[in-house]
Amino acid sequence: MVDWTDRHYRFFARLLTNNALLYTEMIVADAILRGDKKNILGFSTQEKPLALQIGGADISKLVEAAKIVEDFGYNEINLNVGCPSARVHEGSFGACLMLNPDIVGDCIAAMCKALSIPVTVKCRIGVDDQIPAVALRNLVKSIKKSGVNGIWIHARKAILKGLSPKDNRKIPNLDYDIVYEIKKENPDLFIGLNGGLEDMSQALKILPSVDGVMIGRAAYKNSAMLTTVDEYFSNPLTGSSPIKTRVDKDFWRKISASMTDYAARHLHSGGKLQQITRHMIGLFHGFPNSRRCRHILTVEAGASTATHHIIETAFNLMIESL
To answer: Locate the DUS-like FMN-binding domain: which residues (predicted)?
Structure first.
């Protein structure tokens, strides 16, 4: 998610779950080729397993950029065929590529041939006036024969004319059934579902019908949700009862110490405290003293005198209430 899943958030998220596959923001191929590669692609090895989501439609540029991504040590590269923003549309990539499944197939084939890491696609079920049952199957057919390793399907259409990216995340109706059908028709291909998932309990009800689930904004706005992911990996039968967020104090003390140390190193290198704390606000959702904790990490963290210890202060307030 652009502006959300940067390296600071991913470091934080990995402390909450050891097993979830984390994704970067979408990075355009041209940015990788022309920009500061270390700044754009650098990450902590602690973030792994980690996939990079790439945007573009020029085969040669995608391949060249993807090779660089692989050399940096990412575990997977994911082609974005779902972003509905006007800027992306003007660049002729993102969701509008669903109108040209053969181009997507050619891009995937070229990257699969050039790389040794998995190549996946993130798409919608269709765009504008397309019929999902037709459009999605055409895309799947094209990229499957191109050697794609998996497809993540956001179970909504993308409306390119008249809706903002924000509206595109909630106004088009969800259609999980078409995703389930695609999985039944392609039992040998990884099919993951995205869109409208609010917690792991809901996700577990869906998992029997697909191979994986992708949770974005809900996990960002309520980060403690991520502490429930590993329970599923250790006990897949957990889905029969609600999964509870971790509340043991020792666990949160370790998170506090890790993030405080991480912030200290970031500040020492010239970074700003709020580049980190802005990603942590959702952690306190549902906990006592959440409003005060959020105030500490937003207003107080923005003060010129604020230090990395501000993170410790917020955590201590939460821990004391457990």
So the answer is: 1-298
